[in-house]
Amino acid sequence: MRTRRPPTPYSGPVDDSLLTHGRALKHVQVREYVRSLVAGQAPGSPAPSERELVHRFGVARMTVRQALDTLVSEGLLERIPGRGTFVARPPRVTSTITGYSEEMARRGLLSESQTLLARREQAGPGVARALNLTEGDAVIHWRRLRRGDGQPICLEDAYLNEVLIPGFLQSGMPTSLYDELGERGLRPTWAEDSITADKATREEAELLELAPGAVVMRHSRRALAGEKAIEVSRSVYRADRFTMWIQLGG
Amino acid sequence: MRTRRPPTPYSGPVDDSLLTHGRALKHVQVREYVRSLVAGQAPGSPAPSERELVHRFGVARMTVRQALDTLVSEGLLERIPGRGTFVARPPRVTSTITGYSEEMARRGLLSESQTLLARREQAGPGVARALNLTEGDAVIHWRRLRRGDGQPICLEDAYLNEVLIPGFLQSGMPTSLYDELGERGLRPTWAEDSITADKATREEAELLELAPGAVVMRHSRRALAGEKAIEVSRSVYRADRFTMWIQLGG
DNA sequence: GAGTGGTCTAGACCACGAT
DNA sequence: TCGTGGTCTAGACCACTCT
Question: Inter-chain contact B249–A190, Cβ cutoff 8 Å?
């Protein structure tokens, strides 16, 4: 039986991001070592064997397994019993939440965005409910006319929970809302969308340079980052210039 | 230090589904015991503590942790350091691939489906490409008029890879395509959808009981079960009676 | 202080794949 | 046969929460 374990005064080079209470956890060290080894490797490339890592780090095999378990559950590695551990083929993208800018980029179109309105408002009943706020709470209302290759494509009214993004209006409006949210750790991870077809109102037709009554697609979204309802938006798209693409599942 | 472990001749009641090579793995026993305890429990209810399970099953704590790890990664349990292990609140549904029947059921509408066509055809170029087939390969073409509460809502043309579902046409058409595919282990796990708005053609307008030129929503789907492309479909929905709901992310 | 989960050890035997 | 991952043991110390 083992006696007391010494207080593990680890003293090697340590990435600060890997510290917990001032000390790097061993399984984290192993995990990040393997992650860096494996970064950029082709799918199917072998990762170090568990016993090799045991040797290199002087840790128990269970510790190595804990490290690899994480990477396997991340989809980075794949274990094949009797053969070894290998770089997994990149898992199919699991329905990413994308915004308009990314949608346009994906099709190779130049994405432009003209802000028609960006101001603090009091939440109405619908917006308040969608953002888990109380009616009258402060929200940011951002209305944009969006173009692809110069042509009007979409008119979007987004409402953002101001409490979650202090200084948003003052900092100048970002090009990509979702990138900006990402930098604040609030990139939406979940969204409820609804989509229907309709005819453009007169105002919409004017802004989108359509004949009144032309066919449009209406898209509503409620986007959440973790538990936080961050954005609710209503968009109207020219049907003749826009097809929505969605990938579901993983 | 331990000596050799005895050959673990487990003899308790064993669910066949839990057997591997004729012997129930201990972590599986523990896992399924906890799963059954926790089934139907309200979120936040405590699960047995790790040490309690160690006692009850006479196993090492690492074994119990392995069992609980699985349930945690399934989203069934949640660990809170210093407090215990608890039933997790049901994880948000990660964008399920749903078919029309399930969509209707979700809104509490009576879903009906009238088969207009169900036959073997030779794949055209578009369908062949979508199903990873060669032009001329056999596909099943299934055209349905779908109603909600008696009203025409959707006209759908589905093409299925016949090789993957032998005897499909002969067995009588199912009510829910996705349920039927599920029973063959081919429930789609991934789908590429595209959605746009348009005006109904004369034929569509007739079948959907619309005025010619009325606004409709067009929906295309390419659905895969694992690596197998199983279904490709084109649907047209009456915009006045149907809004598409999508949940993204998890 | 008692109980909980988080981390870690230093081994063991097994089934399986490659050689 | 040798190396691999899969399973398992019987403990240990830690930080944390709750009472």
Answer: yes
Interchain pair A248, B97: CB under 8 A: yes
pLDDT along chain B (250 residues), means of 10: 32 35 76 90 92 93 94 90 90 62 77 92 96 95 92 94 89 80 83 92 96 94 88 94 79
User: Is residue A135 within 8 Å of residue A125, measured between CB atoms?
Assistant: yes
Domain boundary among A64, A87, A110: A87
Does residue A24 have a pLDDT over 80? no
Q: Give me the CATH number covering residue B64.
A: 1.10.10.10
Mutation to test the A interface, candidates B195, B199, B210, B219, most A Cβ within 10 Å: B195
**B85: nt with nearest C1' to CA:** C5
Neighbouring CB atoms inside 10 A of B27's CB total 19
B70 and B116 in a single domain? The answer is no
> Using CA atoms, how far apart are residues B139 and B155, in angstroms rounded to an integer?
19
Domains held by chain B: number: 2
Residue B7 lies in a domain: no
CA angle A104, A105, A109 (to 5 degrees): 60
- Does the distance separating the beta carbons of B194 and A243 come in below 8 Å? yes
| Domain around A206 | 100-238
Q: Nearest residue to nucleotide C8 when comparing alpha carbons to its C1'?
A: A63
Task: Round to a whole number and report the distance in Å from the CA of B10 to the C1' of D8.
Answer: 14
Whole-prediction pTM: 0.72
CB–CB of A245/B248 below 8 Å? no
- Per-residue pLDDT at A174 exceeds 50: yes
**Cα-based distances in Å from A65 to A20, A185, B59, B164:** 20, 30, 19, 38
Confidence of residue A233 (pLDDT cuts 50, 70, 90): very high
> Which pLDDT score is estimated for A95?
58
* Subunit contact A246:B195, Cβ cutoff 8 A: yes
**Per-residue flag: B62 CB under 7 A of strand D:** yes
Question: Is A10 an 8 Å CB contact of chain B?
Answer: no
Q: DSSP string of A166-204?
A: TTTTTT---S-HHHHHHHTT----EEEEEEEEEE--HHH
